[in-house]
């Protein structure tokens, strides 16, 4: 007996309406919820009480892999987990123990909604490495990781139906935040040099023509997650000029900016305009993700609203982790530690790129990151990374399908490979396994493509294209001319 037979009305019809304040227009209906929402009171008696914003919630492509990548036989090229074992763990452990024994009354107590003043001072020192020399501790709000910072910024600025411009592809955690706020994401294409300024301006013009309210541009300019590319210096100036012309707010998410392999940190967008850029930072990639300490640097008026939103959400960020990060910055050689991290990640990046070059079948292309954690790989024509994923897991290798990095369902021909966590030999073995899976998929497609199932006549096979076109986005094939793999 099917589940539907248990309930004569297993579905309830929802009439979609515009949120208050959203003007009608050509783009007004793009954000509406599906008119039919599944409901089964015997499976979930509270199903028809949930808020509308929950109907589109789905598991992250990355989180869905956790049970798989924890298996010892699986080489995970999926999660972007920092190599925390490279930290001086004994020294860090002693530091935290001394902190609790000497300052327990403070470290274990409630704190300020804005965050510890000493930590905010040290955060300004960290940002100065990227050219942000005018930041004041009073403009900094400490958050539970930069993820909470992004959530707070989105809550403060976005109403249902508003448009957020974001690179295509874009960080999966950001897409989840925008979806939960019922904002619409409009992807802007990228290429090897990052976000394309002309495409950004075109998106702004189209949104204006449609009557869409664009609240901000969300960008990861350095060592992009997932694409691995970095916004070039000329384009940074172009994008800031566009922001001035169109009165565009920019949310700059920069967890990887200090992790460049062959260059000094690039000058942040926030260093170019203190009023038009809200900056998100994190200690997850340069110290410890488990401490969950990040921050937002924002103009004072925005800071006030972020503090109020923080107090409503978590009351205050955890005191112990804030004191731990501040003590680490005060007492440990953290700049040298970052250099150690970059050397380690460079070695692993090289192992990944060399293995891809040696083992991947023709027609596979990928980006060449100059820092950070990720390679963005495009499969040969006709392959689908999401459909291929179970066979890869069966071959004991894991990756993140590209579909998770697009709000519009695109990206199936892409995958994100992370080289930050496995040792170089594991990376090489993981790439070898992945190459075999892709080759098997190509053989399977070749078999079906070479037969006309209606008449059983042989049909010509397509000649593989070896140029590295369209490395980053599904609408970007015209933006790659150098033929890099």
From TrEMBL:
Q: Which InterPro entries match?
A: Aminotransferase_I/II_large (IPR004839), Class-I_PLP-dep_aminotransf (IPR050859), PyrdxlP-dep_Trfase (IPR015424), PyrdxlP-dep_Trfase_major (IPR015421), PyrdxlP-dep_Trfase_small (IPR015422)
- Report keywords, A-Z: Aminotransferase, DNA-binding, Pyridoxal phosphate, Transferase
- Cofactors: pyridoxal 5'-phosphate
Record region (Disordered): 1-41
| Entry annotated with the keyword Membrane | no
Q: Which domain of life is it from?
A: Bacteria
Keyword DNA-binding applies: yes
Recorded GO molecular functions are: DNA binding; pyridoxal phosphate binding; transaminase activity
Q: Which residues form the Aminotransferase class I/classII large domain?
A: 102-434
Which GO terms of type biological process are on file?
A: alpha-amino acid metabolic process
Per the record, the similarity remark reads: Belongs to the class-I pyridoxal-phosphate-dependent aminotransferase family.
Question: How does the record describe its quaternary structure?
Answer: Homodimer.
Q: What is this protein called?
A: DNA-binding transcriptional regulator, MocR family, contains an aminotransferase domain
The organism encoding this protein is Trujillonella endophytica
